[in-house]
Write a structure and sequence with these properties.
Length: 196
């Protein structure tokens, strides 16, 4: 067996292996304007980059990470399948396919670029149109390390949270890793609570 087919094989085994009946697996879609740091946030969070599948034809890459959390005194292991959509407009028609079966949404913007913040409304509209509005959702403002270049203040963010009805907001830096774990744990916890 050559190394490529061995790798393919391992990947298949990974994706199709039998799972324990109690295994918790959630599909989380990560959306927002290009270059806000969606891919960087996922890369920072996912330890084993082997557990990733890139489908260039549809512009989607899927990573998996497990988190152990204590929720209401109970230890739970949650597997997150993180769907990362390439931002190119040619893929926009595929959003509906990409959204299909999602359990939660991470909606992001770049703290240093105001239009990525204004565009949250359009991303949200698309979620409404595709019937995903009731899913657990976390708002993320990324690039908090770029303090000097910051353009979006907390008052604006709180206003957006209210108008989009997203109670959870996390401010991250994919560069330093600040709050990256908290971001993914927050969405996992919200989905878990929703499904109790
Ligand atoms: P996307 O997946 O949303 O399109 P990427 O965004 O993850 O590709 O990131 C876009 C650019 O922003 C990258 O720079 C990346 O290194 C940078 N970036 C992402 N997150 C952060 C962050 O938290 N802080 C800083 N300072 N930069 C960040 P390049 O230069 O590779 O295009
Ligand atoms: Mg990307």
């Amino acid at each position: 067996m050559n190394s490529l087919s061995k790798k393919e094989n391992e990947k298949d085994e990974y994706y199709y292996q039998e799972r324990e009946p109690g295994d918790i697996i959630y599909k989380v879609i990560v959306i927002g304007d290009p270059a806000i740091g969606k891919t960087s946030l996922i890369r920072k969070f996912v330890k084993n980059q082997f557990e990733k599948d890139y489908l260039p034809t549809v512009g989607v890459s899927i990573s998996k990470e497990s988190i152990e959390m204590e929720i209401e005194g109970k230890k739970v292991i949650i597997n997150l399948l993180l769907w990362d959509l390439a931002g190119q407009p040619q893929f926009y028609l595929l959003h509906k396919v990409y959204y299909n079966g999602a359990n939660g949404v991470i909606l992001g913007f770049d703290l240093t670029r105001t239009h990525t913040y204004s565009n949250l409304k359009n991303w949200h509209k698309e979620l409404v149109k595709d019937g995903l509005i009731d899913l657990p959702m976390v708002l993320v403002g990324n690039k908090s390390d770029l303090k000097e270049e910051r353009k979006v203040g907390m008052a604006h963010i709180n206003h957006m949270q209210e108008s989009l009805n997203i109670p959870d907001y996390v401010e991250t830096s994919a560069m330093t890793g600040q709050n990256v774990g908290i971001l993914f744990k927050t969405i996992a916890k919200r989905i878990y609570e929703r499904n109790l």
